[in-house]
Amino acid sequence: MVTIVGIFDIDNAPDMDKAVERLAAAGFDDTVYDEAIVPEDTGTVAPVFAPGSAPPVVLDSPDSTPKADLRTIVRAFKTHLARYHLSDEVIEDYATAFYRNSKFVLVRTDTHRAEQVIEILRECGASRVNRHD
Predict the structure, then answer these.
(1) Residue 49 belongs to what H/E stretch?
(2) In the Cβ-directed half-sphere of 16, how many Cα atoms lie within 13 Å?
């Protein structure tokens, strides 16, 4: 299996949404990582899947809990990346980009379909697309 990582700048959220839609239409399972990977109520790690799959949260409502701090969120992100068996150097590089408000789309696929994923992410405006065999 191959892991493809698409990185989107915070300003390109609509492009990322388009990429996720196109990947789903092509039959790929993807995982989107952004600042919401740590549930505010438990502090445990949980992935966030395609936009719209999580219930909406109203911030600053009396029922909302405080958001996890950025260090906790980055640690959770690094934990997720370790599950993809990426090197420590790659994880640190991605954590730095994540810390600077980048959003990530990760796709695991077979080697025959990897180029299709790369093409979709590039066409949709990913600032970086990396392949990890």
Answers:
(1) none
(2) 26
Is the pLDDT at 113 greater than 70? The verdict is yes
- Taking the C-alpha atoms of residue 108 and residue 93, their distance in angstroms, rounded to an integer, is 19
Give the pairing of strands 2-8 and 103-109: antiparallel
Question: If you write DSSP's letter for every residue of 78-98 in order, what string do you get?
Answer: HHHHHTTT--HHHHHHHHHHH
Give the three-class secondary structure for 48: strand
The tens digit of pLDDT for each residue in 38-73 reads: 544 434 444 443 333 333 333 344 444 445 688 888
| Strands of the chain, DSSP E | 2-8, 30-33, 103-109, 128-132
Q: Where are the domains of the chain?
A: 2-52+66-100+114-132
SS (H, E, C) 100-111: CCCEEEEEEECC
Nearest to 16 by CA among 128, 96, 131: 128
Instruction: Locate 35 and state its tokens.
Output: 């600042």
